[in-house]
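[job 4471] stage=fold_predict status=RUNNING
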Amino acid sequence: MFPLARCIAWRPFKSMAPLKVAGWLLKELFLVIHGEAVGLTRFPEIPFTMYRVLFVILFFFSSFANAQNNNNFEISKNLDIYSSLLKELNLNYVDEIDPSSLNKTAIEAMLNALDPYTVFIPESQIEEFQLMTTGEYGGIGSLIQQKGEFIIISEPYEGFPAQKAGLIPGDKLIEINGLSMKGKTSQEVSELLKGQPGTPIHIRVEREGETEPMSKQLIREKIRIDNIPYYDILKGDIAYIRLSGFTQKAAAEMKKIFMEMKESAELKGLIIDLRGNGGGLLNEAVDITNLFIPKGEVVVTTKGKTAEQNTAHPTRMTPVDTQIPIVVLVNEASASASEIVAGALQDFDRAVVVGQRTFGKGLVQNVVPLSYNTQLKITIAKYYIPSGRCIQSVDYADKNPAINGTQIKAPVAGEFKTRRGRTVTDGGGILPDIILEPLRFSAVSSNLYTENLVFDFANQFARKHKSIGDAADFRIDDETYAEFVAFVNQKNFTFRTESEDMIENLRKIAEEENYYHAVAAHIRQLEEKLTEYKKNDIYKHRLEVDEMLKVEIASRYYYQKGKIIASLQNDPELKKAIEVITDPVVYGKLLTP
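[job 4471] inference complete, writing structure tokens
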């Protein structure tokens, strides 16, 4: 038997610490190489060169074991320091401390030094995390938002307890189960609203136009957020599917809906809308891609620190359609699983991607259970799509000059080839085949929205009008827009522009340099002219404001589905997708090198 194999097979060897074992083996080999102790003559069948090879192998083994041992020592040492520090703070700090709060701060600070996706999940947020993966939670089914000192209902989900109990956008939550909500954060209120399906919850709300608060008794239900909130067959027999999430069963839902549309019409193309889709489960992204490419193709490969994290994810099923023309719509908020689908279909030359460069999240997370029913969501790998490119846009390993921000340098873009030989790049999301400028709102439009004036006017409009007809046909007429302008003026709406900020900076610089007396009249003239121009901004940018009002009002009558339908009527990116998909020549050229 080979001597080293005999050593490894020896039972006492197995129980020794790795470093001790490595040292023992190195010592024996050193003696062997020098003809001492056991001596070369003892194992004449082993060439001297082999001993040198073994020595090198064991040297690296020893180095690895030594590094691992050092890491373990550093962890133990720092845990001891941390424990001692917390104990001393608790005993000696002048005021009472909250150990849980301090510990949470310490954990968050530590993880913030890594990347934004490695996060600690306390027991109180387990349900919220489950919502991200399953799309389900126990609650009343409503979005909420902060407004002043209270939280308000911003969007109830159709068919769930909040909507069935008559809660509407704008309702102010003043009490939950007898507890005042004044000063509570959105997170605190959300935790109170959630709970086991079937359990009751008592809510008191204030509603604009009502003199007295209203009491509502609701029964929590299992709330499921649809992965596909809207789909339709557009003019020209083009299937449109809005995919908003990648939670469990997203691929099965996509397959079912697509097959139903195929049965009801002779489809000429498919538009998959991934705009605003922040991603989700990797396996769902693979299975959705699999619907349109053959079985056995590797859609994404993950590469991490350990062998277990280096895995290829091939398609496993027979596709449903490998020929139908496909356009994928993306924007700057399309991330993670969305980028896998868009990028893989692009790499296989299976779809034309239209829109803006995507977010660039090429990092894979796994969830590790910790003690006391807490969890750690940890980045374990990067993912690579079929051409071999990684779409991660921020290099978090480079700590200069800041962490968790755009200041960290992005990887240098490299060139890769699609299946047919088209050139694509990595280092910053998926670059569409047709790049469209994103919609940028003016200062007046942005401020009208962020100050909730569009939201509040939609509530007022819904109180005055019982119906609006079909969401697809609803328009903001001159009379409604005049009502909105009057509503805004009544609220004493003001907003500040970048031009005003620049004029203010000019004033300060002129004062510092003692030139203000010379230019004061010109600065005042600029301010006056700008103020006059601003008065007309609400009319100058009416098309933008019209769109916001139309979408917001439609949601008061038709909820999430109505909001999507209204937003698609004048959507330039959707129009471009239809234009591409209905022109076989253009579509073919875009997928040809």
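[job 4471] summary: Confidence is low (pLDDT under 50) at residues 1-46, 403-408.
[job 4471] exit 0
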